[in-house]
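Weekly sync, protein design subgroup
Attendees: M.S., D.O., the rotation student, P.L. (late)

Item 1: inverse folding check
M.S. brought a backbone from last month's batch and wanted to see whether the design step gives back something sensible before we order anything. D.O. pointed out we never logged the input encoding, so this time it goes straight into the notes. Structure tokens as presented (391 positions):
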């Protein structure tokens, strides 16, 4: 029996993971649940259904409401960022699924690594912010970082049984998002609703916008660099609108190995939970004769500058990936709030990267400080723009 702690329990990855826990009751039990606390009714249901030993919510008021709704014996309840960190490092779990969204996951995910828990990692922003520090901490503790992101799970699967030294390059596939065929000149006027229409995956709002700007693929280049210890130019992006080939590894003899499947996060989540074994995933099966055609294209980095900005931040190193991520989070939130237009997301990130004077963060605390400062600067830049013109 594997005891699972779920950071981001109420999200898209979190709820899919809980469905898998329900599908394999002899294999998995829930140790802890963590979330922001914006949906207390859902959390009450999850506590009744999965009987976690502890629950941590960012919002202390939500903790009070959860306590009032759950009769004793109730789970241990923890509040605030420190509560999430305490839950993530708790010895009760065998594996911690890191599925918070954004930089909020950094300290809890680091706590899980430092406590020696296996980490099933969905929260790619943490690796973008602190890839070197996180992978070093994982190595020092003998902790395995198991990829949940579908592309990285595909790469991980294509690497099994091969020599890492034989890898020529990694080919990350990208759906291209909802604006793959939209002319560049029209991107400035697209709406939040248009951007939330992902063609192949159902996901949380932030990653769905990242998929529309292709920043998601940019973040995934950085994620791959750290998960698989390859150089930036060993990670290439291929647009593949059907989202059937989840990614590929090209070996030095020219052989290219691919992992294929339906677009269902249940498959990579389950593999991360059962690795190195496999289980019959409760997901649709791939029928290639029904798919018919698989197509592949070069990404258009002129139309989608976020991809170029992410690669440049990885190559610059130091604080640049932290600034990139922070600027993106603030800009995406502002776009979702209808405070800026779609193409302003990339403009704000580019401005933040150019303006940043931050040095290479040598610790997680320094990463957090760079992150806070970059968020403040981008929020200020948005206010300045709003003072000037409306989207
Ligand atoms: P989501 O928005 O659906 O869920 C986010 C979860 O994090 C929720 O439980 C929410 O309560 C919690 N949360 C958000 N902000 C928080 C904060 N400040 N403090 C504490 N909790 C907070 O997001 P998602 O789509 O499930 O994505 C989660 C992560 O997984 C992201 O990093 C995303 O890039 C990655 N990912 C998601 C998918 C997918 O299919 N959804 C695929 C690959 C990778
Ligand atoms: Mg992905």
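Designed sequence read out in the meeting:
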């Amino acid at each position: 029996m594997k005891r699972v702690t779920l950071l981001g329990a109420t999200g898209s990855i979190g709820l899919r993971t809980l469905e898998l826990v329900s599908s394999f009751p002899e294999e998995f039990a829930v140790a802890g649940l963590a979330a922001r606390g914006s949906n207390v009714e859902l959390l009450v249901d999850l506590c009744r259904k999965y009987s976690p030993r502890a629950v941590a919510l960012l919002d202390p008021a939500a903790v009070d409401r959860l306590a009032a709704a759950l009769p004793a014996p109730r789970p241990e309840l923890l509040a605030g960022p420190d509560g999430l960190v305490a839950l993530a490092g708790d010895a009760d779990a065998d594996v911690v699924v890191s599925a918070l969204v954004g930089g909020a996951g950094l300290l809890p995910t680091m706590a899980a690594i430092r406590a020696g828990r296996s980490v099933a990692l969905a929260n790619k922003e943490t690796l973008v912010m602190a890839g070197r520090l996180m992978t070093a901490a994982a190595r020092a503790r003998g902790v395995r970082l198991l990829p949940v992101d579908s592309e990285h799970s595909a790469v991980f699967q294509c690497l099994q049984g091969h020599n890492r030294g034989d890898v020529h390059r990694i080919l990350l596939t990208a759906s291209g998002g909802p604006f793959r065929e939209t002319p560049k000149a029209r991107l400035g006027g697209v709406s939040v609703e248009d951007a939330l229409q992902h063609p192949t995956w159902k996901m949380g709002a932030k990653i769905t916008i990242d998929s529309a700007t292709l920043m998601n693929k940019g973040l995934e280049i950085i994620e791959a660099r750290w998960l698989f210890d390859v150089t930036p130019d060993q990670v290439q992006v291929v647009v593949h609108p059907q989202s059937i080939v989840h990614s590929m590894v090209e070996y030095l003899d020219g052989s290219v190995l691919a992992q294929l499947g339906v677009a269902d996060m249940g498959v990579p989540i389950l593999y991360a939970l059962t690795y190195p074994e496999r289980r019959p995933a409760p997901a649709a099966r791939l029928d290639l004769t029904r798919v018919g055609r698989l197509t592949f294209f070069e990404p258009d980095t002129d139309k989608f500058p976020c991809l170029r900005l992410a690669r440049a931040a990885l190559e610059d190193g130091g604080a640049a990936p932290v600034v990139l991520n922070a600027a993106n989070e603030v800009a995406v939130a502002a776009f979702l709030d209808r405070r800026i237009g779609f193409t302003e997301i990339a403009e704000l990130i580019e401005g933040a990267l150019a303006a940043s004077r931050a040095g290479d963060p040598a610790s997680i605390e320094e990463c957090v400080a760079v992150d806070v400062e970059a968020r403040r600067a981008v929020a200020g830049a948005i206010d300045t723009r709003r003072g000037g013109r409306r989207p």
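Discussion: The first strand starts at residue 2 and ends at 7. The mean pLDDT is 97.
Action: P.L. to compare against the previous round before Friday.
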